[in-house]
Amino acid sequence: MKQEGIPKAWTAALIAFTIAGGTGALFRWGLLGFPLAGLQPVNIRHAHSHLMYFGWATPALMLLIGTLLARHTGRVGPLFVRFAGIAVAGGLLAYVPFLLFGYSPVRIGNARIPVATIVAALNMLVWYAFILHYLRLTRGISRPLWVRLWDASLVFMVLASLGAWGRALLVAMKVTDPFWENALVHLFLIAFSDGWFVLALLGVLYALLPAEISQTRRAQWATWSVLVGLPLTFLLGVPLELTPPTWRYLAGIAGIMVGLGLLLHLTVLVPQVSPLWRVPLAFLALKAVGEIGVSVPALARWAEANALRIPYLHWLLLGFVTLGLVMAADEVWQLKQRNWLWGWTLSVLAMELSLLPLTGLWPSPWRGMWTMQAAAWGALPVVLVALGHAVHFLWHRPRRSWHLQPLP
Ligand code: HEM
Questions:
Q1: How confident is the prediction for the chain on average, in pLDDT?
Q2: Which residues are within 8 A (CB) of 5 and not within 5 positions of it... i.e. 6 or more apart?
Q3: Which of 53, 193, 331, 372 has its CA 20 to 30 A from that of 323?
């Protein structure tokens, strides 16, 4: 069985990662006085995060799900690859206005147009098209745990997009309630990262393991715990003083359910995976413990005071999601590129470690300018590994198609 175009689309997603990672590194170097050619740091950060979400993790997951579904059902959906390619292109298209203008409207003639917001909204159309295609391909098939995890991940993708549309609606209706503004932004961010990315990648991981692993009672309970908690955890991102106490209390319970559910999944997965996979799973464990922590308001205040938000985000998005995607790709398409996997793992570890001295956990006598320099240098290895990996694929001109091996 063959599926055309996967190598090209995967390489394009890796190039998007390299550009997004390079942009994150530029943010760090900008703080050290590196010339930014008039770009605003806040816009550089928006450009970085949107390209990572839209142009890297989303298309990478589309490709993996499409390939694994084709193996499971025998139904090859060529549109998966096309949608992944369009998602990379859409991510790059949104990157430019985010970098230049951020969310600010741009004067075009007499009108002031929020260009980045409009292009970001266009990106959502390809997600909806992907969901429709997925529904058509999976109609009437058996639904083991990993297919149900993908079903749920796509529900969260829709929920995330509703957060984004809701935010645009508030602007159109000139509503300026800080709670709703914050809540809708976090609905988008958290439903997309913890819902779409995490559930979809867990589905990919279960699909790669023997079928009986997904059938264990523990895996089923873990999934329910995560699914029941997830719809409310976006409130944990909203500043404490803006959230009504009852909502914050419910969000705390939801966060604990998600954290415990993820830890329970790890007890099923860790004994089954190869040693290198344990690194992304360790980052998922850190994220789960962090989530349980911020569910308690006093600990959430402590985490905020110690500037733990950025490391916490990157444990999940770089440590688990990105490393997990690269390792899953190696297994799904049987690439057997062990050296590249080591390169990714070590460089991601270097980047994550370089963030720690920026937090309040670092002893104050050891602080100083060097911590900013370390974070700036620490951002580079992973960008170089991604660039090298993309160039490797371009250089070796991967076959038009990678073979689809039968599932274990
Ligand atoms: C090459 C690896 C990466 C580097 C060098 C990097 C760098 C950065 C930097 C410098 C920031 C801003 C920090 C601050 O405000 O103090 C940031 C924020 C962020 N990054 Fe990354 N990052 C990387 C990987 C990723 C990945 C893989 C994702 C998602 C899949 C991601 C998503 C985000 C998000 C959502 C934010 C917060 C944006 C905001 O608050 O507006 N990053 N990153």
A1: 94
A2: 78, 81, 82, 85, 400, 401
A3: 372
